[in-house]
Amino acid sequence: MGHDLSTDPGYLAYQYGDAARLRIRQEAHRRYSERPDDFLEWVVDHLDPQPGERIGDVGCGPGIYHPLVAARGAQVVALDPSWGMVAEVARQGGWVVQGDAQQLPWAHEAFHRVMANHMLYHVPDRRAALQEMWRVLRPGGRVVLATNAGDHLRRLHELHAQVARSLGYRPLEGSVTERFSLDHLALVRSVFPNARVHVRPDAFRFPTVEAALAYYASMAVDRIADPPGDGSHRPRLLAAMAEVLQEVWARDGVIRVEKTAGCFVAEKTVSG
Ligand SMILES: C[S@@+](CC[C@H](N)C(=O)[O-])C[C@H]1O[C@@H](n2cnc3c(N)ncnc32)[C@H](O)[C@@H]1O
User: What distance in Å separates the CA atoms of residue 211 and residue 167, rounded to the nearest whole number?
Assistant: First the structure.
């Protein structure tokens, strides 16, 4: 694995070969978010799909948005490079193809709306992917790109860096998602000039050390330079992280980690 895990093919295969790790994080968001309203509904409100419309979902993962879009009477056509994700969506009866955001296998102006949620940070050429979304959108069509704020989960990443250093590992700076965060409005506007950013503050309130640790184990634990091929860093880091989290929990009675996210919204206007 190289240092930029966010686009490393080996890391992506490990992280998204099947839906297991993603499901752990999605379940944590559902159970431990401070805000009572649902993030997925919030994103779909911004997408605002209308009955009978065709919606493209780029980098769909296991398709967690699809039931919400279907409930509004629109039809989703999804794409993901991971065969495991494609199989998951197909198993649910979804319409899905294997492919890459940088070269969408879809006709010009095929969609009324396109969403690409929590995925552009994995795409080597993010601008090419945005241009492809522009191409497949009808004039007047809308794109929604959900992602994290630049400081999303900073506290967890700081604790990870502290723990990793204490064990002699070199922690990677920042997070996997920093290649495409809510700070990237200029990049989005370079293709969709009228893009707006909508920020949604939130935080995890993990009630137990185990809950926080499961989330950490699903992703951030791998953010070290040159991780050993046998994965031996994982049990070591998890044990050390458990001790640090235990201290936080003993002091605060909860483990609170801010996780602001949001989305970009834009329309394909004819004049740009
Ligand atoms: C964090 S998941 C997000 C899944 C889904 N959009 C969601 O919000 O639940 C990131 C997804 O992006 C996909 N992905 C990675 N590189 C991609 C690329 N170049 N083109 C399209 N999708 C990609 C991964 O396979 C994974 O399913």
Answer: 23
- At position 208, the amino acid (one-letter code) is T
Report the C-alpha gap between 16 and 214 in whole angstroms: 17
Decide if pLDDT at 202 tops 80.
yes
Name the one residue in this structure whose structure tokens are 């993603």: 22
Strands (DSSP E) found in the chain: 54-58, 75-80, 95-98, 111-115, 137-148, 196-200, 203-206, 255-258, 261-267
Q: Is 80 in the pocket of ligand 1 (CB under 6 A)?
A: yes
High-pLDDT (> 90) share of the chain, %: 84
**Burial bucket for residue 115 (CB in 10 Å: 0-12, 13-18, 19+):** buried
**Residue 94 Cβ < 6 Å to ligand 1:** no
pLDDT tens digits along 28-48? 999 999 999 999 999 999 999
Question: Per the CATH hierarchy, to which homologous superfamily does domain 5-150+175-203+260-267 belong?
Answer: Vaccinia Virus protein VP39 (3.40.50.150)
DSSP 3-state assignment of 88?
helix
**Does the pLDDT value for residue 13 go beyond 90?**
no
Nearest CA-CA partner of 80 in 65, 67, 71, 69: 65
CA pair distance 85, 89, nearest whole angstrom: 6
Number of Cβ atoms within 10 Å of the Cβ of 35: 12
Q: Does ligand 1 have an atom closer than 6 angstroms to the CB of 61?
A: yes
State in Å: Cα 167 to ligand 1 middle.
Answer: 32
Taking only the tens place, the pLDDT of each residue in 57-79 is 999 999 999 999 999 999 999 99
CA–centroid distance for 244 within its chain: 26
Q: At what angle do helices 209-217 and 154-166 cross, to 10 degrees?
A: 80
